[in-house]
Each structure stands twice: as C-alpha cells, then as structure tokens.
Amino acid sequence: MKKLYLLFFLYCCSFIVVFAQNKTADSLKNVLNQTKNDIEKVQLLNEIADYYKSSNPVLMNEYATKALALAKKINYQTEEGTALLNLGIAKIITGNYPEALDFFSQAKLVYENELAVNSKDNLKLKNGLARVYGSMGIVFSEQSNYAKALQHHLKAVSIYEETKEEDKLARVYNNIGIVYRAQNEDFKALDYFSKAQKIQEKIGDRTVGITITNIGNLHLKQNNFKEAEDYYTKAKYYFEKFPNPRGLGELHNNFGLLHKKNSTSEKALESWNLALQSFDLIDDKFGKSDTYLFMGEYFYEQNNGSEALKYAQKAAELSKQLNVLEGTALAEKLLSSIYEKLNQPSEAFKHFKLYKTAQDSLINHENIRKSVQAEMNYEFEKKEAIKKKEEEKKTLLLAEKSKRQTLQTIFIALFVLLLLGIAFLIYNRIQLKKNLTLQKELAEYEQKALHLQMNPHFVFNCLGSISSFIVQNGTDSAIKYLSKFSKLMRLTLEYSKESLIPIDKEIESLQNYLELEQLRFNNVFEFKITKSLEIEDDMALPPLLLQPFVENAIIHGLIPKKENGTISVDFSIEKDNLVCTILDDGIGFDKSKEIKENLVAIHKSMALDITKKRLEMMEASTAQKAKVEIKEIRNDLGEIQGTKVVLNLPIQYIK
C-alpha cells in the first residue's frame, strides 16, 4: 500500500511558536487571563491553539475558534490567517479534509490580501502563506491527489527558500519525499528525505524522528530488516522524548509490518494495538484505518475469517468516511477475498465491484499525475535563472571595463527616453480610459432611450383597451383589470430606469402582462413561462425586450384564431448565449399580415425596428453577437402551426 506505509510530516506536528516551546499551556492561559489588550489576547489564543496541535485537536479547535472571532472583531488580518490555519490543521488531525481545505483556502485569501497592503509583517505573512500551501499539499496527499500535492508543496518550498526558514523547509522536503514514495519513485523520495534529515540534524529539529521513520520505511520496503529496525528504534527514542501521538502511532504500525515480515506474529499484533492506543488519543481516523487494514490482512493470512472480517469492515468504513480512494480500494479488495474464503460468493462479488470502482477512480488520479512534472520544471527554471544572472553579471563587468563612459551616456539617454515613453503611455491610457467610459455611458443612454420608446407604445395599447373592457365587463372585472394594469405600470416605470434587469424581474413583468391580456380577452389563450436551471440569479437582459414579441403573438397570432390557443416563453443557455424563445400556435405571420396588412405592418415595423436598434447597441456595449429570428412553424403537410421567435443574446450580469 503506497501511502499507508508512510508518515506525513503534518504542519500540526511541526511548526511550534518559540513562545509556546518555552511555556506550558497552563502558563499561557495564565498570561491570557491577565491580558486586557485584544492584540495580545488574539496572539495568545493562537499560541495556545498551536500548543495543542500535537496532543489535543479538540482544544486546538476551541482556542483557534476564539482567536478567529477576536481577530475579525479587531480587524487583525495576520492573526485571522493564523487562526484559520490552526482550524484547518485541527480538521486534518481528525480526518475532516473538506473542512480543512475550506479553512486553508480562507487563510490563503487573507494572507494574499494582507501581503498586498502590509509590508510591516511581510516575513510573517509570507511564512504563513507557505504554511497554507504546505498544509493543503498534505490534504491532497492523503486523498491520493499527488499532482496537486506536489504543486502546493513546491509553492511552499519557493517561499521558504526566499525567507530562509530552514526548519520549515526541511518539513516540506519530507512531505515531498512522501509524495514521491507514494508513487513508487523511491530515488526521488530518498533524495528529499536526505535533504530534510541533513537540515534537521544541523539545526537540532525536535521532529527529526518523522524523517527517520520514513527512511526506515524505505529500508522495510527493500527488505533490509536490520536497517529498518535500527531506524525505527531511533525514531521511537525521539517520539518518546518529544511526545507526538500520531508519529508514535504510525511508528507502531510500521513496527507491526516489520514483525509480520519477520514472522513474529505476537509482536506484530502488540505493535498494532499500541498504534490504535496512540491514534485514539487524538481521534486520528486516518491512522486507525491503516491499522485496521493491517490487522485484517494479518488475520486473513492466519485463516481467522471472523477477526479478519471485523477489522476489514472497520478499515473500509473509515476510508470511505475520509474519502481515501487507495484505502477504500484495499479494504474492499480484502473484504472480497475474505468473503470468498468464507464461501459467500454474492458478498465477495459485491465487494469486488466496490473495489474496482475505487480502483478506477484511483487510476484517473494517477493519469493526472503523469501530466504534471512540477518539481522538474521548478528545479530546471531555478538553475536556468541562476545561470542567466551569472552570465549577465559577467557581461556587465566586461562591458563596463571597456566602454564605461559610453554606457553611461547611453544609459542616461535611454533613461530619459524611457521616462518620456512611460509618460506618453500613461497619458494615452488615461485618455483611452476616458473615451471608453464615455462610449460606455453613451451606449447605456442609447439603450435606455430605445427601451423608453417601447414604454408609451405599450402603455397606449393597454389604455386603449381599458375603456372598452369597462363597458363590456362589470365593475368587479374592471377593478381587477385596473389593479393588474397599475401593478404592471409600476414594474414598467421601475425597470425603465435601468439598462439591465434580472431575468426573474423580466419574467415577473411578462407574467403580469400575460395575465392582464388573458383577462382582457376572456381567457382565449393559455401561457407558460419556463427558465433553465443553468441560468444564474444575477443574469440580466434589457427591460421590455420580449414584450413586443409576446404582444404580437397574442394580438396577431392567437386572437384571430377561432379556437383557444397557447403561448410559451422559455429562457435557456446555449454555449455562451442567453436564448429567449417565444412560441405560439396562432394563425402564423403571413396570414396575420394578409388580414391586417396596413395596421400590422406599421405596428410590427416599429417594434422590430426598435428591437433591432437595441440589439445593435447591445452588440456595441458587449462586443458579442445579438440577433432575433422569426419563423413560421409548419407540419409535415406544410400547414402553419404557429410562429416562433428566437432571441440570441450575450450573457450579461447585474453589476
């Protein structure tokens, strides 16, 4: 199993604030109780949270939560990022990777924003950002997403090399080695482990035991049992000297594997039980899932089906809960083998299918990894940059000796020209920005002018029908009609102030208008308005853009029809366009033109002309195509079944 033989060098077990190293949790709490300054309080809360990272993730989460609340209250961005980072680390320890990534993403955003404006805490902010990248790399590693893990670890390396944080750099080297080892690239893994060990021995790092454990794991894989046991024994000494429950638990897991290979079964089980005890101290589900799998495999090989089944089920349950594909695949494969040995073919087949599903997902992640060679590119670019700087330095020195005076004159001339060029570019940019602003405002005013032309056209049509409606219908119907009409007018006046309105507002307006027309024409037609789920809440379009087409469909398509008709309006997304479709089953465009040639021609010409201008202005302001298509719908016999209007509009959003 690639990953489970290794111990990730968690930041939660490595980065220890100097103040916290020298004082106990109790002394920190005493200082906290006596402090009245909020800045000092939030720093102490984060230090206490950091203190608990290797022993009590629950308390770590509690104090980090308090630190986050106080940091936000006093707007202390640096400590807010630290609190979010501590919360993410606490989630890693308890195996809640989705929440861990969420906290790390928030911390990353805080650090990046603060780096852009704060130069006072520049070093602390950079190291915090590097710590975020490294922590995210750990999460991706434990989820078998090795490509992303390398990407984030190498970002952390780049920052730590800049800030010269050797202890932290060693820990990232260790984690990179683990990622390579998980992919069976043992040579690269040993290279990074050696880098980490060299730095840790140089500075006396208290967590060197983790690096030693990983080197021992490589020897165990190569069946160098004596060397592996020597490294494990040395690592145990450091873990006992500097308590680390997770590190000690993983070490006991590896001791169990070593004893199993040496055929000392009792010692293997004893080591795994010690591992479970260590993991229980910090509720480390990931570590326990490894141990359960090892014990399940052991009992399976010993032909103890009931015990093997019990531990394999526990391993599968935890792996699925943690979304660890590799652990899930191995646990399901083991369950399939156990049920096969227990002569339960249906259960064996069921778990074999689950194993194949997890294995296929794992293969997909592996394929992604092959396309990412981030570490190779990083080393190559680094060497090339150093080489280029050295060559430029030599060239400048030689040129200065031979033509110093000439170069000075040329430099001054170029500098003056550069200043003039920059001034010219700045001036042009300012003028261009002004022109673009004016053009944009002009386009918006023209849009408003065009859609305001539609308002009187629409209002006069409605007012023209009110008097006849009142005469033909009773007082109650007239009041109902006028109520709907006034609501529609309010919406129309409100929308006329805006260049764009949300699609839901346009739907509301069309709904009111269609209900009004239904009342006016005694429900001679039905209507339906639909909207695709792909349409976002802040997508928008110009107001009253669809109303003329809906009105034409009713007046000139459905009303002349002898029987009842239907009209539908649909909003959908196709590629990068908003598509508005108006469909009716009326008499059709050509026949309507024949019936009321003069009147309809004037009416439709106005509506289409205004809409065409509005679409042209939309194209000018968005630099995207906008068009309208009107066509008759015919059946297989060529008979007219209605009219279809399709508007293809660029996708726009409410600012």
UniProtKB/TrEMBL annotation:
Residues 1-20 form the signal peptide. Gene3D superfamilies: Histidine kinase-like ATPase, C-terminal domain, Tetratricopeptide repeat domain. Pfam families: His_kinase (PF06580), TPR_12 (PF13424), TPR_8 (PF13181). Residues 428-455 form a coiled coil. Keywords: Coiled coil, Membrane, Signal, TPR repeat, Transmembrane, Transmembrane helix. InterPro entries: Bact_2-comp_sensor_kinase (IPR050640), HATPase_C_sf (IPR036890), Sig_transdc_His_kin_internal (IPR010559), TPR-like_helical_dom_sf (IPR011990), TPR_rpt (IPR019734). PROSITE patterns: TPR (PS50005). TPR repeats lie at residues 81-114, 130-163, 170-203, 289-322. The chain crosses the membrane at residues 407-427. It comes from the Bacteria. Residues 446-523 form the Signal transduction histidine kinase internal region domain. The keyword Ubl conjugation does not apply. PANTHER family: SENSOR HISTIDINE KINASE YPDA (PTHR34220:SF7). This is Tetratricopeptide repeat protein. It comes from Flavobacterium azooxidireducens.
